[in-house]
Design goal:
6 helices, alpha+beta, 10 strands, six-stranded mixed β-sheet, Spore Coat Polysaccharide Biosynthesis Protein SpsA, Chain A
């Protein structure tokens, strides 16, 4: 799904624990954070922070979890422009690339950037620390992310920590969301893919190629 819809082939770091039993090649780079047993789910944030410590050259990055399936062509020009905007505005901790912030309570228009309408989140809105796909500013993220949290705690308990920094850090997005994805795995069942967010033609192709077959 990534190769199908992100034609320009950016560098992709696949961060995990034990190396997969198949080659990771091309524009994908495997990065082992450490031993799987050292990072139970309640230490998900530890894994992120350790990864960032291991890759100090990263200043901004697009975070995607493994069950985010891209379902239409990605506007890589938009991502480049928004990344440059964040470099000039270090107070932006996250630039949402999908529609998470667009439909958040209290979101409002903020500025026009080329052909994009920038929006800004109300600092009192829910899920300011949403892990839906976005560009993150590492130095700002380090001010909010703490060790000993699951991804759900990062979103729920991290949000008031970020809200307390109102006036210092901003969460933004666009009305023209440049990346659309679906959550392929939901309800805590890793054996069942959710098909409702996948376009019918793509879904048929995936089924024909056996990509949705699970033991």
């Amino acid at each position: 799904m990534f190769d199908r819809h992100w034609y320009e082939q950016p560098e992709v770091i696949v961060a995990g624990f034990s190396a997969p039993d198949f080659p990771v090649a091309g524009h994908y780079t495997w990065h082992s954070i450490g031993k799987f047993e050292d990072y139970p789910v309640n230490k998900w944030s530890d894994a992120v922070l350790d990864f960032l410590d291991q890759r100090p050259e990263i200043e901004r990055f697009v975070l995607m979890l493994e069950d985010y399936w891209i379902v239409r062509r990605v506007n890589h020009y938009a991502i480049d422009i928004l990344t440059d905007y964040m470099a000039e505005h270090p107070e932006v901790i996250k630039m949402d690339l999908c529609a998470d912030r667009l439909y958040a309570l209290g979101a409002r228009d903020y500025a026009v950037l080329d052909w994009f309408d920038l929006i800004i989140s109300d600092p009192d809105s829910q899920y300011l620390m949403s892990l839906m796909t976005g560009i993150w500013n590492v130095s700002a993220l380090r001010r909010v992310l703490i060790r000993g949290e699951s991804p759900w705690q990062v979103e729920l308990e991290g949000t008031p920590r970020l809200a307390a920094l109102r006036g210092e850090l901003k969460v933004m997005g666009t009305r023209q969301w440049p990346l659309r994805h679906t959550l392929a795995l939901r309800d805590g069942n890793p054996a069942v893919y959710k098909e409702d967010g996948i376009p019918p033609a793509t879904l048929m192709d995936l089924k024909m190629r056996g990509f949705l077959d699970r033991p």
